[in-house]
Design goal:
By secondary structure, the chain is mainly beta. The protein has one helix at about 5-10; strands at about 20-25, 30-35, 40, 50-55, 60-65, 65-70, 75-80, 85-90, 90-100. It has a single domain, classed as Jelly Rolls. It has one helix and nine strands; from the N terminus they run αβββββββββ. It has a five-stranded antiparallel beta sheet with strand order 1-2-9-4-7. Strands 3-8-5-6 form a four-stranded antiparallel beta sheet, with no helix packed on it. The model has no long low-confidence stretch (mean pLDDT about 90).
Length: about 110
């Protein structure tokens, strides 16, 4: 067992759009990513909810019927099957929590290596 400081781990990610798996729990991955000036296409995850927890910065999550603004310390759970897209205009460090296999190159703008 170890203590994981999310801000420190985020600062250690050398490149924007580089996904870093920092922990696993049961069948769930905890993945940190730093992003700036990126809007992904609308997509769904048919088999898993997805959590966006903002470690540093801010971003928006756009849904077909509304947009949610998230700041450091806030999180949003996107239910499985819900169309959404992240909008990151300024630099943000985000912790993604989802079932293993949920993140793919197709739904991460092509930068997720798995």
């Amino acid at each position: 067992m170890e203590v994981i400081n999310l801000k420190e781990k985020g600062f250690q990610i050398p490149n924007l759009y580089q996904y870093e798996l920092i922990a696993k729990m049961n069948n769930h991955n905890f993945t940190l990513v730093r992003v700036k000036e990126r809007t992904l296409d609308f997509h769904t995850h048919p088999d898993s909810d997805e959590v966006f927890l903002i470690v540093d910065g801010q971003m928006k999550l756009e849904f077909r019927d509304k947009t949610v603004e998230l700041e450091a310390g806030e999180m949003c759970v996107v239910p499985k099957g819900t169309e959404h897209r992240p909008i990151c205009t300024t630099e943000v460090t985000c912790l993604l929590i989802e079932q293993e296999g949920t993140l793919t190159p197709d739904n991460t703008g092509g930068t997720y290596k798995g």
